[in-house]
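Note to self: the last two entries modelled the partners one at a time, which told us nothing about the interface. This time every component goes in together.
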Amino acid sequence: MSPDVPPAAAPAQDAGAEAERAGERGALDVSIVVPVDAGDGRVREVVEALGAELERLGRSWECLPVFDGCRGPAWEAAEALARELGERVRPIAFQRPFGQSACLAAGLERARGRVIVTTPQYVQVDPRELERLLAAIDAGADFAVPWRQQRVDPLLNRVQSAGFNLLMRRIVGAPFHDLNCYFRAMRREVLEGMAIYGDMYRFLPVLALRQGYDVVEVQVRHLQEWGGAGFFGFGVYARRVLDILGVVFLTHFTHKPLRFFGSLGAAFALSGGGLVTALVLQKLLVANTGLYNRPLFLLGVMLFVLGVQVIGFGLVGEIIIYTRASALREYRIERIYDKQ
Amino acid sequence: MSPSPDLSVVVPVYDERQNLPLLQREIAAALEACGWTWEVVYVDDRSEDGSLSVLLDLWRADPRVRVVALRAHAGQTAALAAGFDQSRGRVVVTLDGDLQNDPADIPRVVARLDQEGGADIVAGWRKRRHDGFVLRRLPSVVANRLIALVTGVRIHDTGCTLKALRRELVESLPIYAEQHRFLPAMSAASGARVSEVVVNHRPRRFGRSKYGLGRATRVLLDLLAVKMIASFSRRPLQYFALLAAPFALATLVLLATGLARAGPPTGAPAREQVLLVAFLLSFMACVYFVLLGLLAELVVKVSETGGRRILATTLEP
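The predicted structure of the combined assembly is written out below.
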């Protein structure tokens, strides 16, 4: 299984394969999806730790390590596991990297579990905490998000992570404390029908919450990482600020691009127009100095043109949305009460 | 219940607990007299006052009641869209959950679909409104005039929720993004015949209004978008060319003025410099608009629908 293109975000692309899989869906309790993007990822440790924990809890499970365009020792380990455990471990590989969201989508497409558990490629959180995540799902939650307690990673990581989460809470209004931990459990319905692409992976809890799913935060014990990335430089988190802008746009304005571009453009255009009007009035009424002596005049004209252009972008956005309108659904039905 | 009733009444509900039982009685009374088979589809938009449990009582009491519970609050347009998607009637009537529309008007609105040459969508016109003048009626009159002027669809009251639509139209209409106000305009754009009927409007009895004045900017921006989609979705370049026109005019005027004044360089800042920069900027705006228009053409070209949904009505004897 080595798709050369990222799997389509929306399921139900291929009706035949869909029907074939339909019988398998929900056949197991838990599917673990592990995106692997480094050849030295600790796949064996993850599978063995989580597998043992799931055995202890008496749940049927499978694990889908998704290799994001990398092989190396991790791939060999996954192959060995597949030989040892058979159907339990089904490695998936991309020929080149497509990112974590594509990994999750590919894993979801093939997963048979009723609950999907995602985990980083190393044991980041005490495997025993899986019990509490699954208990939260059993208690009726749709999505269980961890909140690492007593973080053991370097101070800089923690500061950046705290800053990121604070920004998310303030700007996006997402009530989560630890969006950077991917040890999550969710019902598969949450993911089905949700477009998973780009950096959506990180924001899944936010998107799920906005769609009306019950997302709960579970406090978990942070484990000294058993390997893998322990330290993140500034660049990693700087990019995430951009992600926040993206998620604000996507959660608030997806269907109304002109509301976003239009407000922004109107602000520019009005301030520019106001400036020009004020200067012209001043010239006519107060002092008859030529407008060429007023740099503000140029600023005004530029702001106006800028604003009008931004509105133009919004209009192109509207056209795009309209042409896809039949595929948009702004509501999610919880239940239909029909014939009794 | 027959699989496809004559009439579906779609009611988006948000915090209308006290109004619902009365509304259901009135709907039943109004439709009972007509001899149609009917269903009511209530869409609970995640009410917080327990409307859903009231709806479920109605659902238990009457097999013609169906209730769609949304997972998250989605807004009136999305709730309507959910109701449309679940409705089965050959004619769909939309109604507010707040009792301000009179269900007794339903038969007249529906009948209008087949009168005077027929219509595909009939909008209610609340000629005598019982709302505050400054906050509700005045903005509404202004908005309606503006919408009629811009879209060319002469409807007096686009904000009235009481509307009747044929099934074919319901299925071909893209309903998204708070556009219920623009349903007549969007319908006309896909070839539907639009008509209106004066309906009764009653003061609110329970609950409170969920509208305010803050919608003005949004309505304006939406209008800009709807105009483009309704009139130009197949040829967006023309719309963008229209937007570029004032800048093109400015460019020409500035260029002419600049040329007329052109003379030997003096070294001092002068009118000509300002003219030059202003000319360049408006020229830029022009070029950008045309380029954006081309981009939009591209989008329309790769879309499945060719940018426009067309309603083909089969004439019934």
